[in-house]
Design goal:
Layout (H helix, E strand, L loop, with lengths): L3 H20 L6 H7 L7 H6 L2 H25 L8 H16 L4 H14 L6 H7 L2 H15 L4 H27 L10 H16 L5 H6 L21
Helix pairs in contact: 1-6, 4-5, 5-8, 5-9, 5-10, 6-9, 8-9, 9-10
């Protein structure tokens, strides 16, 4: 049996995770987490996590290895010289989030939280790259290098960044629908949803490039490479 302190920490984390996923990280106070957890000690949340960002980091640390494990399995099945390697790389970048939201309410809460973090205007592509797991960065970099052979490097980076955000937000929206007991929205089967998401991402990444888009693209503060979406805390800048 885990020590009582560890049990309290995990319970607080469970409660915070669901509150953050349901109403948003910025809309939940430390006091709300404590009360929802039935914790009488006014300093319990601060003791275990320090502040709200500390809670977010703890939630990220809980889920990031699990998402990475899914991604690593998908990546391991890709042949080095496969003619469809780009398709499989995009699959490995996109599908993990689609799979993750099928695993339970805790996993869905994390994807909803991640979608909020990725919408933070203080979060740059450079920050994501610094905080992402090496596997996600490696996949994103290889996709970028493939795309950069047919379009400007900055445009390739912008497309991967936009696609990565869109993927997380689409999965987060599906998670919200699944978790809402009053929802009347019809959901496609999980396998069909995941494959369609991969197909849409690949289509967006490889769409024809127009002169206007080529002239307008510039992503300041990066070296033209894009990262995955597995940031560790998601709130530093």
């Amino acid at each position: 049996m885990a020590p009582r302190g560890d049990q309290t920490r995990e319970h607080l984390l469970d409660v915070a995770e669901q509150l953050f996923g349901r109403v948003g990280v910025s809309n939940v106070s430390m006091r709300q987490i404590r009360l929802a957890a039935g914790q009488g000690n006014a300093a319990a949340v601060q003791y275990h996590f320090g502040d709200r960002d500390g809670i977010v980091r703890a939630i990220s640390d809980r889920h990031r290895p699990k998402v990475l494990a899914i991604q690593t399995d998908l990546f391991a099945s890709i042949e080095v010289d496969s003619p469809g390697r780009l398709d499989r790389l995009v699959d490995a970048l996109v599908r993990p989030s689609a799979i993750y939201i099928t695993l339970g309410p805790s996993e869905r809460a994390w994807i909803k939280i991640l979608a909020e973090l990725l919408s933070d205007p203080r979060l740059s592509i450079e920050t994501i790259a610094k905080q992402s797991d090496d596997r996600s960065v490696s996949i994103g970099t290889e996709i970028h290098d493939d795309l950069a052979a047919r379009m400007p490097a900055d445009l390739a980076a912008e497309r991967i960044w936009a696609m990565s955000q869109a993927t997380i937000h689409i999965c987060a929206n599906r998670a919200k629908i699944r978790d809402d007991p009053e929802s009347t929205r019809h959901l496609t089967p999980d396998d069909a949803f995941a494959q369609n998401l991969v197909d849409m991402a690949l289509g967006a990444l490889t769409a024809p490039v127009t002169p206007v888009a080529t002239a307008a693209t510039s992503v300041p503060g990066t070296d033209g490479r894009a990262a995955g979406t597995g940031g560790r805390s998601g709130r530093s800048s």
